[in-house]
UniProtKB/TrEMBL annotation:
The chain crosses the membrane at residues 21-44. Residues 426-681 form the Penicillin-binding protein transpeptidase domain. It catalyses: Preferential cleavage: (Ac)2-L-Lys-D-Ala-|-D-Ala. Also transpeptidation of peptidyl-alanyl moieties that are N-acyl substituents of D-alanine; [GlcNAc-(1->4)-Mur2Ac(oyl-L-Ala-gamma-D-Glu-L-Lys-D-Ala-D-Ala)](n)-di-trans,octa-cis-undecaprenyl diphosphate + beta-D-GlcNAc-(1->4)-Mur2Ac(oyl-L-Ala-gamma-D-Glu-L-Lys-D-Ala-D-Ala)-di-trans,octa-cis-undecaprenyl diphosphate = [GlcNAc-(1->4)-Mur2Ac(oyl-L-Ala-gamma-D-Glu-L-Lys-D-Ala-D-Ala)](n+1)-di-trans,octa-cis-undecaprenyl diphosphate + di-trans,octa-cis-undecaprenyl diphosphate + H(+). This is Transglycosylase domain-containing protein.
Length: 766
């Protein structure tokens, strides 16, 4: 009996324990289910909605894209670019899956085997986060709390989001999203930015070992940064390669070969102040700020160019832009060397023929406009204290054409040093469309932010004369072959609003007598331009010039015939393009369309154009401008002989034999040098000069447009012609049918080539 009683007690105890176990199990499971339900309902903190999962806030950089599909710049707070799965190289995808989540294609967001392994080993045998969980953390939570209870809640939310992501997206889309959101350091977020920053490549161009380096950084981009820790990065890369071999993605021999390779970088930090088309990108940035004020999202909110991942498709051609930047850099470095040589004998360099008082005024103005002055003023320093600091030597890095240089000088000396630098502006445009193809606003945006294409209007000298000739041909029914007398000429007081007798003279003080209009423009004869504006009146010339797109307020004085007018490079190129486009003006166009981050077009500009001249008159002006290149100051584009200053004609001899229309311009005292050059499908304007008009060459040899600006155009065109994909025309300008104006003038046969000694003679004097 005692035995049976003992057995019964044992059975009752077992049943009691079993009942308690199942009760505890059920309650526990219920608690876990409720825990996950509460987490999914957002009771432990907000959870992403369906819309959030569809459109995660990924803080994308806006990309500036050239007409040939190259990303030439970005606007960003976080440098992140969106990639599709098809943009990723297979070797990077293989490396990522092999290293971070070997069962990625098998699970549905949570790796059960990995979770069990991690739980049993208490995390000592690796974590269990899948790529999808890591994506959930990156997109919606970040690193989160290290406090264990909060961390458990965080992990639960990651699981829920991961499952939702797996339902919402394909495996390939998840991989692409993960590659888009990871921060690789050095302002590079996402594989696209990382590939450009560390290797100067697109993702598709990455080699296996380069992909392994980036995948290795997914573990800890701060620790495995190839710039700061090349040894650690190499070790981590080799681990990734070993994982790829283990997954049979590469062979053992290939693994050993790749592991032996050194870490090779082409590191280039992406910056707003560096890279291609910096001046254009800054102009575009300002435009986009204004655009965003009048163009809203569908929900009425504002676009943010730093976060919304817009794709701004521009008309700039990246190849032509690089050619333009190379041409400007090559010639300006060459010409600058001459400027420094000549400055050594000038005690007031770089200024010429100005008083000490005027020099001090210029330097003081620059001092007060400097960042140093602004910072010290904000520190409540007195003017005397600030000025004193400008005369104390300090360490600084300065710009030179041979690279940045560390030196010791006073801030005031640095101001005078930078005043020495010749600046430049270049713009190239298709006359038939108005599409701007190249834009170089200066010599180095990091050190000189002023844009000499759209921002800086300068006196245009004799490049204004074609507007006078065009008015005369239209108003007086003249032709390039009509003759006019080159002789001393005076406009008396009272005529055309002249307040003092005006007697323009030719730059060389000589007169040729009877000349054709074509010869007069080719030789840039001042008296002929003065006579023509006297016949038509300044008002008629101003009216035509404004129709050509020039917005400058032009004084109704006959002196404008010689170029006493400030105009931007952009406006001059548009005006000359009207002649090349058979008299039709096209407003310069730099945008083709803007897309949102999903590729939906949200804006397309409407081209603006209007008729200015009939085809015959426009063609007559083109023929006049061809005469400048055939026998005037632009003839060195044809010549193979040297002349004064030929060692500064960068890229010479140009030996261009195709039809070219152009005009040089040199303002009074050689403060500004211009060249406007045209072929049938490309018009390019170049300006060269110092920031201050009193900083200049002493003589016309180097200060004239034919030496200062024309070589940039010649070098640029040579590069364009060497690039057949650009299809820059070498054909003649289209001749209108039934041309009513005589343009083919008789020319006496040449005895010998005299182009070697032709000087630019189109500077004006009053």
């Amino acid at each position: 009996m005692a035995t049976n009683k003992k057995t019964n007690n044992t059975n009752q105890d077992f049943k009691s324990y079993t009942k308690k176990f199942w009760k505890l199990f059920i309650y526990g499971m219920g608690a876990i289910v409720l825990f996950f339900l509460f987490a999914s309902w957002g009771l432990f903190g907000s959870m992403p909605s369906f819309e959030d999962l569809e459109n995660p806030d990924s803080n994308l950089a806006t990309e500036v894209i050239s007409s040939d599909g190259v990303v030439i710049g970005k606007y960003f707070q976080t440098n992140r670019s969106q990639l599709k799965y098809s943009d990723l190289p297979k070797n990077l995808v293989d490396a990522l899956v092999a290293t971070e989540d070997e069962r990625f294609y098998e699970h549905s967001g949570i790796d059960g085997r990995g979770t069990l392994r991690a739980a049993l080993s208490l995390g000592t045998n690796g974590g269990a986060s899948t790529l999808t969980q890591q994506l959930a953390k990156q997109l919606f939570h970040g690193e989160g709390s290290k406090f264990l209870p909060f961390r458990i809640v965080q992990k639960a939310k990651e699981w829920i989001i991961a499952i939702r992501l797996e339902r919402q997206y394909t495996k390939n889309e998840i991989l692409a999203m993960y590659c888009n959101v990871y921060d690789f350091g050095n302002y590079a977020v996402g594989v696209s930015s990382a590939a450009h920053t560390y290797f100067s490549k697109t993702p598709k161009q990455l080699t296996v070992d380069e992909s392994a380096i980036l995948v290795g950084m997914f573990k800890n981009s701060g620790l495995y940064n190839p710039v700061r820790n090349p040894v650690g990065v190499k070790n981590r890369r080799n681990v990734v390669l070993a994982q790829m071999e283990k997954a049979k993605m590469i062979s053992s021999a290939e693994k050993e070969r790749l592991q032996a390779l050194p870490i090779t970088l082409h590191f280039k930090l992406e910056s707003h102040r560096e890279g291609m088309a910096t001046y254009f990108r800054e102009y575009l940035r300002d435009y986009m700020k204004k655009w965003a004020e009048t163009n809203k999202k569908a929900d009425g909110s504002d676009y943010d160019i730093y976060k919304d991942g817009l794709k701004i498709h521009t008309t700039i051609d990246s190849r032509m832009q690089l050619h333009a930047e190379e041409a400007v850099a090559a010639h300006m470095a060459n010409l600058q060397e001459e400027f420094f040589i000549q400055s050594k004998t000038n005690k007031n360099a770089p200024f010429v023929n100005i008083s000490e008082k005027e020099t001090n005024r210029i330097l003081m103005q620059a001092m007060k406009a400097s960042n140093r002055w602004y910072v010290m003023k904000s520190m409540d320093k007195s003017e005397d204290e600030i000025i004193e600091s400008f005369n104390k030597k300090t360490k600084m890095t300065v710009f030179t054409w041979k690279g940045e240089k560390d030196t010791l000088m006073t801030p005031m000396d640095s101001i005078r040093y930078y005043k020495h630098f010749l600046q430049a502006g270049l713009m190239a445009m298709e006359p038939q469309t108005g599409n701007i193809k190249a834009w170089v606003g200066g010599i180095n945006y990091k050190y000189f932010q002023y844009d000499h294409v759209a921002q800086g209007a300068r006196q245009v000298g004799s490049t204004f004369k074609p507007f006078v000739y065009a008015t005369a041909i239209e108003q007086l029914n003249m032709s390039p072959c009509d003759s006019i007398i080159d002789a001393p000429f005076t406009i008396p007081v009272g005529r055309h609003h002249v307040t003092a007798t005006w007697t323009p003279r030719n730059s060389n003080n000589t007169y040729l007598g009877m000349v054709t209009l074509k010869k007069a423009l080719a030789s840039s004869i001042n008296t002929v331009s003065a006579k023509l504006i006297d016949k038509v009146g300044p008002e008629a010339v101003i009216k035509l010039t404004h129709k050509l797109g020039v917005k400058t307020d032009i004084p109704a004085q006959p002196s404008i015939a010689l170029g006493a007018v400030d105009i931007t490079v952009e406006e001059m190129v548009a005006a000359y393009s009207t002649f090349a486009n058979q008299g039709v003006y096209n407003k310069p166009q730099f945008l083709s369309r803007i897309e949102d981050k999903s590729g939906v077009v949200i804006y397309e500009p409407i081209p603006e154009s209007h008729d200015v001249l009939n085809k015959d008159i426009a063609f007559a002006v083109v023929k006049l401008l061809e005469g400048v290149v055939e026998g005037g100051s632009g003839s060195r584009l044809r010549s193979t002989y040297g002349g004064n200053g030929d060692h500064r004609w960068t890229g010479y001899p140009y030996s261009l034999t195709n039809p070219i229309a152009g005009k040089t311009g040199t303002t009074q005292n050689q403060s500004d040098g211009w060249f406007m050059g045209m072929v049938p499908n490309l018009v390019t304007g170049v300006w060269v000069g110092c920031e201050d008009r009193s900083a200049r060459f002493k003589s016309i040899t180097y200060g004239q447009g034919a030496t200062a600006a024309l070589p940039v155009w010649g070098y640029f065109m040579k590069l364009c012609y060497q690039d057949p994909e650009l299809k820059v025309s070498k054909k003649p300008f289209d001749r209108p049918a039934n041309l009513s104006i005589k343009v083919d003038c008789y020319q006496a046969p040449k005895i010998k080539d005299t182009t070697a000694v032709i000087q630019d003679t189109d500077e004006f004097e009053f």
